[in-house]
Amino acid sequence: MLLATTDRLLLHRLAQAQSEGRAPAMAAAVVREGEVAWRHAIETTTDTQFRIGSLTKTFVAVLIMRLRDEGLLDLADLLDKHLPGTKAGAMSIAQLLSHTSGLASETPGPWWERTPGELRPELADILGEAPVKHPAGRRHHYSNPGFALLGAVVERLRGVPWGQALQREILDPLGMRRTSLLPQEPHARGFAVHPWADVLQPEVVQETGRMAPAGQLWSTIDDLCLFANLLSFGREGVLSADTVAEMRVPGVAPEEAAWDSAYGLGMQTYRANGRLLAGHTGSMPGFLCALWVNVAEGLSAVALTNTTSGIAIGQLSADLLSIVADHEPRIPATWKPLSDVDPELLAMTGPWYWGPAGLGLKLPADGVLELVSLSGSGLGTRFRPNGDGTWVGLSGYFAGETLRPMRDAQGNLSHLDLGSFVLTRQPYDPQAPIPGGVDPAGWSGTV
Predict the structure, then answer these.
(1) Alpha-carbon distance 228 to 332, whole Å?
(2) Which residues are registered as beta bridge partners of 362?
(3) Looking at the structure, do residues 311 and 373 belong to the same domain, yes or no?
(4) Which of 20, 76, 302, 313 is the most buried (most CB within 10 A)?
(5) Residue 273, domain CATH
(6) One domain, residues 274 and 400
(7) Range of lowest pLDDT (79-88, 341-350, 371-380)
(8) DUF7586 domain spans which residues (predicted)?
(9) Which region among 95-99, 152-156, 175-179, 271-275 has the lowest average model confidence (pLDDT)?
(10) How many CA atoms lie less than 13 Å away from 247 in the CB half-sphere?
(11) Are 261 and 312 contacting, i.e. CB atoms less than 8 angstroms apart?
(12) Domain count of the chain?
């Protein structure tokens, strides 16, 4: 439950968006610590289906990452390995997921979102004669056909239509009973709102065939709250927390001047109201959608509407999340000491030096090691145990690098090896194997 004042602020923000954006209907929700904390609908219900457009891509990305985690593909694999014969065969799975493949943004005409999928029955029909617009891996260039190809990869490796794999691997395990490829009553009707008059025109709804993995799905506020939890925390049997965290990492630098958004593996990142969010927006004729998660604060927000344009749906969803974060901040977890301490691990903590730069190695109660700069800037990362006495970096400069405790002939801890950096208990310890050696004169007060 939220405070009455927070509830009022959320309702005001949603009502403001619906009124000023002239939306026929809107629904929104905020999830806190995995539970729906607030939901509201205007001129509709929270169980009404809306088309979610490109948020569909994140579902496809989850299916691809499941295949990766099962060892059925590698993100570095070229498309030709799993889907031979297309004009995109030289692009990697990772490049398709992150929109860095260089593929065209859209299919050859007519516009796929408003025309039946039967017009493009084969993969060649969604690519056209010259689908490559940029060198692969060089820049972000959003590609709807790229995700149609990823959906085809799912079909090839699973041996079933991608929608069937979606149902079996994501929707059923998460309990998303109101998410489907085609609309199921009760569902919203999509509208275009006249730019100069308060009148409506129904938008055409098409089954998009081969392009369905780019934007076909319909869903509800309640179902998308379940999906938001997956993107925040992972879910055993669906996708691990480590894998969804990997999906949130940008593939290449953003192009926006303000650097306020980027794209990971099927997930957008968006900086709004001083917070870094991850998720996806979506649009199809007659519908807009946004889902953002903020793992650091245990919050997510979803917003749906049935208008073609006129509402900054991504900002609305971000604002709803921020209202809760600002007015009811997350209560820090109660500090508790470690229940069991390995003396050798405890001996690793404390000050270390990389040359003259001071670092501190901490042992928090969550079982990781944390390396921080004693000057308050520079090197800093967290390390997870590998199970063999070494540790792997989780963030920062040393993400993926190995931390090795090194011992002398007597078995005593002598120094740390961190990706070839030698960390010692005193600056440039002459007893440690400092690369390049140490001046035998040692430290002095003269230049």
Answers:
(1) 22
(2) 370
(3) no
(4) 302
(5) 3.40.710.10
(6) no
(7) 371-380
(8) 341-425
(9) 271-275
(10) 33
(11) no
(12) 2
